[in-house]
Amino acid sequence: MNTYNPEQKKAIEYVGDRPLLIDAGPGAGKTFVLIERIKNLIKVQGVKPESILIITFTRKAASQLKDRLRKDEQITTEMINKMHISTIHSLCNTIVDEFGRRQSILGSDYQQNMFISHNKDKFNFIGISFIPKSEIKYVVRKFNEFTIFDVDIDKLIKYIKVEHPIDSEFSEYIIKLMEDYGEDFEFPFNVVYDNDNYAESWFNAKYLAIAKAYPIYQRLLKKHGKVDLNFLQIEALKLLKNPNIRAKLPYKNILIDEFQDSDPIQMQIFE
Hints:
The structure is a single chain. The protein is mainly alpha-helical. 58% of the residues lie in helices and 7% in strands. The protein contains 14 helices and five strands. The strands form two sheets. It has a three-stranded parallel β-sheet with strand order 2-1-5. Strands 3-4 form a two-stranded parallel ribbon. The two termini are 35 Å apart.
């Protein structure tokens, strides 16, 4: 027989219209409470397993949760199969596949990195704004931030130009090297790193180039029929804003593991 402390018991047995947020640190038994709440919902509150949506933030966590549920005598395999236990991106993919337009997904930062690297010549990551292959991961990170936080790119570009100017001496130096060496031009890392003004200007130039490249990235994704994981979430959110589509989804009991990892788009999806 399981025993709960007062806080766990309150979370497991909670009934109400308002969301319940559990604030707990590592080792506090969050997964245990999650499983016990699932059992309480089904066995005590009488909810249907298909009405339960459980979101984890990794596929491994989703798989481990299913394994732990299978080991519980009160939860049958049939019940587990009726629940939706997955990552937020898997849920969004399910929604888009069912109600939207099927698209090819860049399902990881690595795939985004490869897509950007493959189209690097279209982003103007050359000359004063040269971005080496090893730094494409930072481009991926910034593109993701722009999407998640719905950044106004035009305003950002204006801000960068004013607050993070590019020194004319640096620009002239790089342009002169490009003219002198042509196709044999190689970015002078050592010279730039040894000059603080050059190094700062190079950083500013890359920052500006990444902001300018973001709309190009959006167009290229659309052209190739692809979405990254953040755009996948946006597509799902657009569909969920349609009350007719929302009404077709069976999920009435939503449990989210590691809620603090939710981004602004996910917050709107779960509203």
